[in-house]
Amino acid sequence: MPDTDDILLSARGLTKTFGEFTAVDGIDFAVRRGECFGFLGPNGAGKSSTMRMVGCVSPVTGGELRLFGLDPATDGPAIRARLGNCPQRDTLDEELSVEENLWIYGRYFGLSRKEVKERAAELLDFAQLTERAKDKVEPLSGGMKRRLTIARSLINAPEILLLDEPTTGLDPQARHVLWDRLFRLKRSGVTLVLTTHYMDEAEQLCDRLVVMDHGRIVAEGSPRQLIDDYSTREVLELRFDAEDHGAYADKVAGIGERVEVLPDRLLLYADNGDEASAQVHARGVEPLSSLVRRSTLEDVFLHLTGRTLVD
Ligand SMILES: Nc1ncnc2c1ncn2[C@@H]1O[C@H](COP(=O)(O)OP(=O)(O)OP(=O)(O)O)[C@@H](O)[C@H]1O
């Protein structure tokens, strides 16, 4: 068991309501120093509402939340001084230059001019934006703006960095650059807490994660553990020349552990996909195409909720 001193962030029965609506429904979690912890779930699952409470920008409705052993209700400023907060939408000042965006933020945290300049130069290097330091923000690419937002959220050398959907809207190459930066940050000892609805992002970055749906946590573990617990090693994907793939579910029933019917394909869960495929053919069932792949967190989510993560 980890030492409790290693727990930087913990929640018990954490709840957020908006009027009659419960966005976060009594969740428990704990984040250890140095790990990357994720909230994975579809839009509306309550991830941002949770992050906003953790970031001390939205009051807790119920339950207990502690960061560094402190209570956001009474110690908000002390907590915020040790947090970096990277919100879902970039809130950069587009009129200012890249480096000015960092300077202003540093001054806001009470750093001296000298400290701000030194720190900004380091962070621009980290964000691979040194060459763009004097440029205005507005023409930067989406990936650059995201990296600048992350750099800005690091100006106070936070112990925990909160990232709400860090790569939403970025192209695949920009996502990979960002993942690389986040890996480096983690290696340097910063604890990362992020939300995502991309299962590949959760698999790539998170040491541990919770799967959220309708304001609740439906599973928790490392990506590997979750896949082991809630899926099979492999998945056989079968596509048929049919409007209704459900009609084929009976024909392959009993092969592997489980069948899921999606609008455009059948997913047959089996530890050995090739063996399952041979059994399908042996029954005289001829799909248009068949593909064997490893299970992913998408399969975990589908098993837990009966829905796909990204509709
Ligand atoms: N200020 C608010 N007032 C009323 N309802 C809200 C408010 N903020 C969020 N909600 C509702 O709470 C639910 C959870 O939203 P939240 O943004 O936390 O989900 P999410 O998992 O982060 O999804 P997304 O990726 O879309 O941000 C949604 O149904 C949303 O409409």
From TrEMBL:
**A GO molecular-function term, please?**
ATP binding
Is Ribosomal protein among this UniProt entry's keywords? no
Sorted alphabetically, the keyword list is:
Antibiotic resistance, ATP-binding, Cell membrane, Membrane, Nucleotide-binding, Translocase, Transport
The UniProt entry lists the main location of this chain as membrane
- UniProt membrane topology term: Peripheral membrane protein
Query: Pfam families from the xrefs?
Result: ABC_tran
Task: Please provide the Gene Ontology terms (biological process) for this protein.
Answer: response to antibiotic
Q: Which SUPFAM superfamilies match?
A: P-loop containing nucleoside triphosphate hydrolases
Q: Where does the record place it? A: Cell membrane
Q: Which residues form the ABC transporter domain?
A: 9-239
Gene Ontology CC terms, in alphabetical order: plasma membrane
What InterPro entries does the entry give?
A: AAA+_ATPase, ABC_transporter-like_ATP-bd, ABC_transporter-like_CS, ABC_transporter_ATP-binding, P-loop_NTPase
Asked whether the UniProt record includes Transferase among its keywords, one would answer: no
**Residues of the signal peptide:** none
Belongs to which family?
Answer: Belongs to the ABC transporter superfamily.
This one is known as ABC transporter ATP-binding protein
